[in-house]
Amino acid sequence: MKLLYSVLLSVIFFILIFSSGGLAYSQGENATSTSEPRFLSIQHAKSGSIFEDNAISYTLELNNVSDKTILFSDGPERIVTSVNTSDFIGNWHWYWSTGPKSFTADPPNAALIVGDEGSQDIMIVELTNPVHDPTAKKLKYDIVLENTTSTDIPNEFGQSTLVIDAR
Q1: Is this prediction's pTM over 0.70?
Q2: What is the pLDDT of residue 105?
Q3: Which of 53, 90, 99, 110 pairs with 153 at a CA distance of 20 to 30 A?
Q4: Domain containing residue 122
């Protein structure tokens, strides 16, 4: 129960940060209340690891990933829903793969929260090249670290939450 409470507090923290003009909902000066909602996505995993590919890029592997990805919007309407993680990744490759706002042209940022209620590390990363294996419940991303709360990047970690700015 403490772990769930801790994860919920972390998500609320990121909602406040993202909605204050940061990552989640910056549509520009001409945005109107009739604009399409923009979503943040949440993915949970029971364990994971980070492997260094070279000096600036890494591979993030999440294990025992939830089969659902939670989506929520900051506005203009407050929407909360979920989609199959396979569908979310499938749309990453299909829907968000072309155009100036595509994940190919502008990879999304995400906050990776690892640890438990006693000690949490938060890493801001840029995500590319997702690979999902629903049978093995594994999800991999190529990542570039943008910012961390720790100088020690854990090679392996327990439960994690990935909050993705899915524009």
Answers
A1: yes
A2: 75
A3: 90
A4: 2-23+40-165
Residue 15: Cβ within 10 Å count: 15
Phi, psi of 10 (to 5 degrees): -65, -45
Number of independent structural domains in the chain: 1
Q: Is the pLDDT of residue 70 over 90?
A: yes
Q: What is the C-alpha R_g of the chain?
A: 15
Burial of 153 (0-12, 13-18, 19+ CB in 10 A): middle
How far apart are alpha carbons 36 and 113 in whole angstroms?
28
List of E strands, the chain: 39-52, 57-65, 68-73, 80-84, 109-116, 119-133, 138-148, 156-157, 160-165
